[in-house]
Amino acid sequence: MRRSIAAGAAIGLVVLTGCGSSKPAYCTARSNLSKSIKGLTSLSVSSGVSGLQSQVQKIQTAATSVVNSAKGDFPNETSAIKSSVDALSTAVKALPSNPSAGQIASIVPSAANVVSSVTSFTSATSSKCS
User: Fold this and answer.
1) Residues 23, 26, 29, 35: is their CA dihedral positive or negative?
2) Could you tell me the pLDDT band of residue 21, with boundaries at 50, 70 and 90?
């Protein structure tokens, strides 16, 4: 009796495991990238350039995960993410430790390009990740 219950439980577990999520890995990576981009909005003046650089590093790490997991399926979109994040990283690294308002404003187009490329990727992957 115990053996049949154990066998039934094992079969049930295998069946349930087979019914799990079939979403691609890039769906989770996409979500993490979106969260890291939203982290830019929580920065304050007191975060300084180092806070901005730290957040951009998080974005870069999350973007690398997206690119690595989705470049085979979405080469154009992942290429756009990589180049836009690289440009933002370069722009932020070029900031002096006490940047002027104009110098800070100069990174806005790079940040907007990152948002645009991630939005395009999100649209392209919506049917697989919803």
Assistant:
1) negative
2) low
From CA 46, how far away is CA 5, in angstroms rounded? 61
Cβ atoms 130, 27 nearer than 8 A: no
pLDDT digits (tens, 9 = 90+) for 93-129: 999 988 988 998 899 999 999 999 999 999 999 999 9
CA distances from 78 to 35, 44, 71, 75, 84 (A): 17, 29, 6, 5, 10
The angle formed by the CA atoms of residues 11, 20 and 37, to the nearest 5 degrees, is 155
- Residue with the two structure tokens 């990727």: 121
pTM above 0.90, yes or no: no
> Measured between alpha carbons, how far is residue 69 from residues 59, 64, 123 in Å?
15, 8, 16
Whole-number Cα distances in Å, 24 to 59, 66, 69, 89? 20, 11, 8, 27
Place of tokens 């187009």: 109
| Count of C-beta atoms within a 10 Å radius of residue 50 | 9
How is residue 19 written in tokens? 């019914």
Crossing angle for the helix pair 75-93 and 48-70, to the nearest 10 degrees: 160
